[in-house]
Automatic annotation (TrEMBL):
It comes from Brenthis ino. InterPro entries: Znf_C2H2_sf, Znf_C2H2_type. SMART domains: ZnF_C2H2. The lineage of its organism: Eukaryota, Metazoa, Ecdysozoa, Arthropoda, Hexapoda. It comes from the Eukaryota. GO terms for molecular function: zinc ion binding. Residues 59-80, 229-249 form the C2H2-type domain. This is C2H2-type domain-containing protein.
Length: 398
């Protein structure tokens, strides 16, 4: 025990050591923290994570992303029919080659690309830091060829949004972006079926090419503008506040996951205004515990096997109509008495004489005398697994 205690005390990376009050400055932005734990969490924000290379087409006006050039053209015609855009063709090279300067360009020597990895060129603290080598790894160089179309002489009049008409020679300019496609991570996976653009769901069939992809970058979400809610038409100054508002219009279904204990906790936490339903409970005479249903309580807590009492009763038709089967008492008709001439039988309930009576078997179970729980078979276990999978499928839809 002493060796274990010494190990935990000497460990500098333990939770207690990280939470110890020490002023620790950040290595990148010189921000000071009260303990090492907060500084480690803050340093993770300086980590640069490379994104997967994709070919997306962006609208320069509303910053919407599209997967194909045709979708971008349709978007321009529908959303921005009155805005004039320059026709430019821009080609980005994923791995550009250094070309010799042309006659029009200035005669400058192009330095060779440094192939040394970034890890060997990082410097910290008092060393003379030069960021030129680091930026070459983080920024991709590209050659841009811009071709500007002739001026639009056919457009002579200003037109409003409602009465926008294009002349015969006027064609709306569009920005064309050509990006060299590379193998993505999806192409490297081994799939049994070929990939398609259609994604099938339980109640939804959609085409991926026609979907609109809007940027979720925080700087674009907070960008000022006028955004209206599609449900209540309330205007907001930015997209971020609009997204927070749309949660109000969401409908939440029934609580599926968990048992009744988790359900009660969920109701107490999220639905405090709902009135509690009064549930009648009884107290067990043997164990002094409260229960709702006698059968479940005796099965779980007082499952003692007691032989029930069986008795045969001779009852008339009127009295047998008042018999009711309960948990403790069961009634079974076994037959009738012999129909003999001049012989009358007294009813054991009302005492009236009758020529013919019914023989009823009454089985009385004591309060603590239920049979033991039946063992589950493999079929019952499979049914429970199927029921659990149905619940998981319902949860995956949300």
């Amino acid at each position: 025990m002493s060796t274990c205690m010494n190990k935990t005390q000497d460990d500098d990376n333990s939770y207690k050591a990280l939470r110890r009050r020490v002023e620790v400055p950040c290595e990148f932005c010189d921000r000071i923290f009260k303990n090492r734990f907060d500084s480690v969490v803050h340093n993770s924000s300086h980590i640069i994570i490379p994104l997967i290379k994709q070919s997306l087409f962006i609208c320069d006006i509303c910053n919407s992303f599209f997967k194909s050039q045709d979708d971008l053209n349709v978007h321009h015609l529908n959303k921005h029919p009155d805005i004039f855009i320059k026709h430019e063709e821009i080609s980005y090279d994923a791995y550009p080659k250094i070309k010799e300067p042309t006659e029009l360009s200035d005669s400058k020597e192009i330095n060779n690309v440094i192939t040394e990895p970034i890890k060997n060129r990082l410097k910290f603290e008092d060393d003379d830091v030069t960021f030129k080598g680091i930026l070459k790894d983080l920024v991709t160089e590209c050659k841009v060829n811009v071709q500007i179309c002739d001026q639009w002489d056919n457009v002579t009049k200003c037109y409003e949004a409602s009465d926008a008409k294009f002349s015969e020679g006027f064609v709306k300019p569009i920005v064309h972006v050509k990006i060299e496609e590379e193998k993505s991570l999806v192409d490297k996976l081994v799939l049994d079926e070929p990939l398609t653009d259609e994604y099938l769901y339980d109640n939804f069939v959609g085409n991926a090419n026609n979907q609109k992809f809007e940027s979720i970058h925080y700087s674009l979400l907070v960008k000022p503008g006028i955004f209206n809610c599609r449900y209540c038409y309330t205007s907001f100054p930015d997209r971020f506040s609009l997204i927070q508002h749309e949660v109000v219009h969401m409908k939440i279904g029934k609580y599926i996951a968990g048992n009744h204990y988790n359900l009660n906790k969920h109701i107490q936490k999220h639905h405090c205004n709902i009135k509690k339903i009064a549930i009648e409970t009884k107290k067990c005479e043997k164990c002094r515990l409260k229960y709702r249903k006698c059968h479940r309580h005796t099965r779980d807590y007082n499952s003692e096997v007691v032989t029930p009492s069986v008795k045969l009763l001779k009852v008339c038709d009127l009295c047998i109509s008042f018999f009711r089967c309960t948990i403790r008492k069961k009634y079974y008709v076994k037959g009738t008495t012999k129909d003999e001439l001049g012989v009358r039988y007294p009813c054991e309930v009302c005492g009236i004489l009758h020529f013919k009576l019914k023989i009823v078997e009454r089985i009385t179970n004591y309060q603590y005398g239920f049979k033991s729980k039946k063992k589950k078979t493999n079929e019952d276990r499979l049914k429970l697994i199927q029921h659990r999978l149905k619940k998981l499928n319902l949860l995956n839809k949300y």
